Amino acid sequence: MSELDNITEFKSSPEVIVKLLKYGIPKSFKEGDIILNEHAYVKSIPIVTSGSIRVLRSDDDGKEILLYYIRSGESCIMSFLGGMHNDTSKVRAVAEEDAEILFIPIDKVLLLIKEYPQFLDYTFNLYHKRFEELLEVVNAVAFKKVDQRLLGLIKLKAQHTGNKVISVTHEQLATELGTARVVVSRLLKQMEDDGIVQLSRNKVVLV
User: More exposed terminus of the chain, fewer Cβ within 10 Å: N or C?
Assistant: First the structure.
């Protein structure tokens, strides 16, 4: 659980980490596993201790769009909000890669917020970061062309994994952008012709 030690807000209060480990329920997930479904009641708050997860939002027709990633040491502010108000989840969380997650029951989260200002700071800082990321999504959807958004997503995945070879299908990229697979395939082919990427089966290499 070394990632908990690296959370800035907890460094001055190691007892928070002790309580998190005491209250938390560790679980392992494989790449592609669904961690949280939309419309499910939130009973605990996830803190990622290794790996990462992606958070998506879908509409009534099943179209999805990527909202943000949750990395090691981070949690999902949407889960915080749902759990605190005894509400259902408005998003779906999927393991981007193999991940270890510590689930903190909602009642214990409330205790931590009351007892430790550092935990409240952690929550507010997450809220601020997620809000900025959501603004970026709104900005991209409203003002950027699909080819710009696609390249931005590929670069984000490369930055996120630290690897220019990205294991991803055209269908997944289309899902995360909220567009059609044929559109993504056409744009990727154009990017390959322009020397921006190289394509192989279920892989995109950022040149």
Answer: C
